[in-house]
Amino acid sequence: MRHPKLPTMTRRTALALLGAAATIPLTGARAIEQILQPFPEGYGTDPNLIDPIVPWTGIMSEAQLKMAAYFADFILPAEGQAPAASALGIHEFINEWISAPYPEQTKDRTTILEGFAWLNEEANARFGSDFMSVTGENRDNILQFAAQHKNAENPMPHDFFVRFRALVAGGYYTTHEGFRDIGYIGNIPLETYPGPSASVKQALEEQFKKLGI
Predict the structure, then answer these.
(1) Is residue 203 assigned to a domain?
(2) Could you give the angle at the alpha carbon of 35 between the alpha carbons of 51 and 59, nearest 5°?
(3) pLDDT in tens, 25-57
(4) Is 34 contained in some domain?
(5) DSSP letters of 26-59?
(6) Which site from 64, 90, 134, 206 is most exposed, i.e. has the minimal number of CB atoms within 10 Å?
(7) Number of domains in the chain
(8) Whole-prediction pTM
(9) Residues 85-139: pLDDT tens digits?
(10) 97 and 163 in contact (C-beta within 8 Å)?
């Protein structure tokens, strides 16, 4: 019987990870070690929305948090009145997300941590250093490569980019600053209600006539 705090893993996935561990450098091995860590208790299906807590510890290392912050700002940099993603703590949100013990988040844990390992491996292969030690231009070139090249034999870098981008956008545009950036004004009480416009009223009247009411 599977231990309730260990990630669900098929035999195929386990063999793939073991094979990868034997062939990749320390950064990749560290990612696999993190992926296979036992999961903490969650808050179940009934979270406390009045006094919310996160009962698990973030799994990312400090180096990975810095990579996540840089990547998040690559996706959504500061522009006009809108702050950069890292200024809103989106990298910390992603850390919390992939550390959670739920099926969607545990799947993303593998994608994101393998992606971080790939960034370091790619930077070492191209420039002889880890991702955060190379220039900003070189980092951006690696990220652009992942964004633009989907290799059927190795889809992981592109899949990583796409999923990370989705998490950044999802986190950013559920903040107050993100709402403001896209002009969302929901959840704000109106002092007065103007009612439907004249054109809407006319369209309704025409439909009512067609229906005979």
Answers:
(1) no
(2) 40
(3) 445 555 666 665 665 666 666 766 677 777 788
(4) yes
(5) HHHHHHHHHHTSPP----TTS--SSS----S---
(6) 206
(7) 1
(8) 0.70
(9) 999 999 999 999 999 888 899 899 999 999 999 999 999 999 999 999 999 999 9
(10) no
